[in-house]
Design a protein that fits this description.
The complex is a heterodimer of chains A (602) and B (249). Chain A has 602 residues and is mainly beta. In chain B, the strands form five sheets. Chain B has a four-stranded antiparallel sheet, with no helix packed on it. Chain B is mainly β. Chain B is 0% helix and 50% strand. Classes of the chains: A mainly beta (602), B mainly beta (249).
Chain lengths: 602, 249
């Protein structure tokens, strides 16, 4: 057995043979015999002389662009490199290029440093072109063995790059870190945890049918395992594919029903009718309401500062020969005093909301229905339940002021003239409203009975429940929902329609074509959306927006799922029945404006 | 700082690479490709061992031995194994697996076979190193051995174990020896010394008080990592004529 003396290290290597070191075998100084051939030994080299020992998990040597590089992965998961040309200095390895290895909220150069974020065991695999470092969790980084390689004197920043001018200076300077730049990519394979098929009501996307699955594509362009099990579409569907929750901002939305005060909170959005009437005019009218369409409302319906409750009230509805319908409040349905009769404007709130018909409509057919000269109406068996209740609405489309509305009604002879009965105490002065009873409601009513004409006219004392004299074709009694204050005053109920519209904070996305996206962070995408159509038979709306998709997030935070996938995600491939039909985009975003850049002129 | 030249980084704006998590399907006809359903393919997730043999990559994950391709790092094929793998190294066209139930060999077609260890006193391996055409190991009977492919005149090649050296007198390798093959030599490190096996002979180098943490290889030469000391590679080799051969026992 032979033994060498301990060798102490100073800077540099043994450049010349020395016979004077105790224990060194004279005559064979610095030589080695390999297969009978004497070979000069390179000499012992010190790769690093740290103040604090590095705990090493992996040492691996590879030839990078013709240069032998000794890679060292510490147990802190940092990656270092040692070069023969830079003895006694370990370099931190970092990725060249403006795309960092990971995007983080902190704007530091650390994003380009090559380090694992987890793992205790590390392995190296390589072929002629690539060197891969992988931990036991599968996090993989791949280095191009024939790519860029450069030593930097300090970590490059966005504004400054420093290169060593002399190798010796770089080695001697104790106070500066040295960095080695290589072409590195994170080529980790990821599994798809979930994906969404989001409806495309504008049908801009090619329809899908059958099995649909998604797979992540790593930075080498390798398509990973498809999601399992595949989603099955029974019928053709135009859709977007997303990895985050997303909703369409265009197309038709079904009404989820009416909402009015005292209803439970609703998390979606409302739509309300916008109309106006010349309420300042002193003329008794009639005044028509001016339609201004429908608008999205973010606030729940309210009755203002009027406390009270929802009640059911009886109204009279008369239909004339022109098909117009008039509504007034039956004297008997008012509490105690006619002063409680509702106005079209009360507490500054215009009764523009739809009125909810609540219960069957009674058809008044004969004189006996009227109950005689001095009696109120009675219910008859000519009761027509409406099969489509309770989702039946009508709107006020006009108003006439200061109309005498009688307490009782009477039948006058063969002409079936409807008159009021009694004197001044048997009527109240109130408003008559022109309403748009839906055609299907009217149709159902008219089918039930042969209409009988009740006439009104110029006979003194005749009740004129309409804007002009004429023949009343039919007379009905109905029940509607109203708001009654604590004092007994009636108010029209503010009703808004409920929809499951996308709203709240999130990211509104517009496809500029060919899967090129414009992504804006918005507080509410409905702020820029408009209602282009409203089907008043079922209150289905058509929504229009400058954006195609909306991705809601719970908090305006960089760490939300959308941002995380945007900054640190990968492309994904869409698979449909044995074919990859699309791959999502990789794009570049301006850090100042947040806009995705597709053209150098942008 | 001395000896440095600097310049302003190129580029007039800071941009970030992003991956929108949304996809429109409005030009799919231009990018369709046939692709079979592959939801049974595995990716490295939580594996215990991985090694490479040419284009093939062998990986032990979830009680299975999988084989995949280096260029894709996807693992479509696997075989169930009923043992715990301690070490795995490439050999021949497959890999050697040293386990708690013996030494096994898997070929490129995932055929698993036991390796005859009758030449050894024990198959419980406590350290291993890849030597290109051989795999080296140390067992708990302090034997240093190699595992090589034998090419018989008739029949298929098969793996076999060869003891390289019996116990070196008075040497115990310890519970955690470090073993590294490089440059045609096998290095076995204990706490403060390294034994080198070359040309059928052993040489020992004592590093005094410097404790050896791990061994590596760089450019065909040994790298030694010490506790609280510089990391070095290459160690002086004395002319072999002065070395006393240690015969195989």
């Amino acid at each position: 057995m032979s033994r060498t003396e301990r060798v102490t290290f100073e800077r540099g290597l043994l450049e010349s043979t020395s016979d004077s070191i105790p224990g060194f075998s004279a005559g064979v100084s610095n030589m080695d015999i390999e297969k009978g051939v004497a070979i000069r030994r390179m000499g012992t080299r010190c790769l690093n002389n740290p103040d604090v020992a590095i705990d090493i998990a992996l040492i691996h040597s590879a030839i990078i662009s013709g240069c032998p590089v000794c890679f060292i992965i510490s147990k802190k998961r940092e990656v270092f490199a040692a070069l023969d040309q830079y003895p006694e200095r370990l370099m931190r390895v970092f990725k060249r290029g403006f795309a960092p290895l990971r995007n983080e909220q902190r704007e530091t150069a650390d994003k380009w440093l090559f380090a694992f974020r987890r793992g205790a065991k590390f392995f190296a695999l390589e072929d002629g072109l690539k060197l891969r470092f992988i931990n036991e969790h599968g996090d993989t980084f791949t280095i191009n063995k024939r790519g860029y390689m450069q030593v930097f004197y300090g970590l490059p920043t966005l504004t400054n790059i420093t290169l060593p001018t002399q190798l010796i200076n770089a080695r001697r300077d104790d106070y500066t870190d040295i960095y080695l730049a290589l072409e590195i990519e994170d080529t980790t394979h990821n599994m798809v945890s979930k994906f969404n098929i989001v409806d495309d009501p504008m049908k801009q996307n090619i329809p899908l049918k059958g099995q649909v699955a998604v797979a992540m594509v790593n930075n080498e362009g390798v398509i990973g395992p498809l999601s399992d099990p595949p989603h099955i579409l029974a019928d053709y569907k135009h859709a977007y594919i997303t990895l985050v929750e997303a909703k369409s901002l265009r197309g038709k939305f079904d009404c989820l029903g009416p909402a009015f005060s005292a209803e439970p909170d609703f998390s979606g959005a409302y739509v309300e009718r916008v109309a106006s009437v010349d309420s300042g005019s002193t003329s008794n009218g009639p005044h028509d309401m001016v339609e201004e369409g429908y608008a999205i409302s973010q606030t729940a319906p309210t009755q203002g500062n009027v406390t009270g409750s929802v009640v059911q009230k009886t109204v009279m509805i008369a239909q004339d020969t022109d098909g117009k319908c008039y509504m007034w409040f039956d004297h008997q349905s008012l509490v105690a005093t006619p002063a409680n009769a509702p106005d079209i404007v009360s507490n500054g709130i215009l009764a523009s909301s739809p009125i909810i018909l609540d219960g069957p409509i009674n058809y008044l057919n004969t004189a006996s229905d009227l109950g005689g000269a001095a009696s109120p109406f009675v219910l008859t068996d000519a009761m027509i339940p409406l099969g489509f209740l309770p989702q039946t609405f009508m709107k006020i489309v006009g108003v006439q002021y200061n109309v005498d509305i009688p307490l009782n009604y009477a039948w006058s002879g063969a002409t079936r003239l409807l008159t009021d009965v009694g004197g001044a105490g048997d009527k109240y002065t109130g408003q008559i409203f022109l309403v748009d009873l839906k055609a299907d409601v009217l149709g159902a009513l008219l089918l039930k009975e042969t209409p009988n004409a009740f006439r009104v006219g110029t006979v003194p004392g005749a009740f004129v429940p309409m804007y002009n004299s004429g023949i009343v074709m039919n007379l009905f009694r109905a029940k509607i929902k109203m708001w009654q204050s604590s004092a007994g005053k009636l108010h029209f109920l503010q009703v808004k329609m409920k929809y499951n519209l996308p709203g709240g904070f999130g990211y509104a996305c517009r496809n500029k074509g060919f899967d090129c996206w414009e992504i804006d962070q918005v507080n509410n995408p409905l702020d820029s959306a408009t209602i282009t159509d409203m089907d008043e038979t079922n209150y289905e709306i058509a929504l229009s927006s400058p954006y195609d998709l909306f991705c809601p997030v719970p908090f305006p935070d960089e760490r939300n799922e959308f941002q995380e996938k945007l900054l640190n995600g990968r492309r994904f491939a869409v698979w449909n029945d044995k074919r990859i039909i699309a791959k999502s985009q990789m794009a570049y975003r301006d850090d100042l404006t947040g806009a995705i850049i597709y053209d150098v002129s942008e | 700082m001395s000896g440095a030249s600097s310049y302003t980084n190129r580029g007039s704006r800071a941009i970030t690479r992003v991956f929108p998590p949304i996809c429109a399907l409005d030009y799919q006809t231009l990018q369709q490709q046939e692709f079979e359903l592959n939801n049974t393919v595995e990716i490295p997730r939580d594996f215990t061992h991985i090694c490479q043999n040419g284009k093939r990559v062998f990986m032990v994950q979830g009680g299975r031995l999988m084989v995949g391709d280096f260029s894709t790092m996807l693992f479509p094929n696997y075989v169930e194994i009923g043992f715990s793998v301690l070490f795995m190294e490439p050999l021949g066209d497959g890999a050697i697996l040293m386990s708690n139930k013996g030494i096994h060999f898997v070929d490129g077609n995932l055929r698993l076979q036991n390796v005859n260890c009758s030449e050894l006193k024990s198959f419980n391996v406590k350290a291993s190193s890849n030597g290109g055409n051989a795999v080296f190991g140390i067992n708990d009977e302090e034997e240093v051995f190699s595992c090589v492919m034998v090419f018989p005149e008739a029949g298929s090649p098969y793996p076999a174990t060869i003891p390289l050296s019996g116990n070196i007198d008075a040497v115990k390798w310890g519970d955690n020896p470090k073993i590294q093959y490089c440059g045609g030599k096998l290095f076995v490190a204990r706490d403060t010394d390294i034994y080198v096996f070359r040309n059928r002979a052993w040489t020992r180098y004592d590093f005094g008080t410097h404790s050896i943490r791990s061994l590596g290889e760089h450019n065909g030469r040994l790298v030694i990592h010490f506790f609280n000391s510089p990391m070095v590679y290459d160690i002086p080799i004395i002319d072999t004529t002065e070395i006393e051969e240690t015969p195989l026992s």
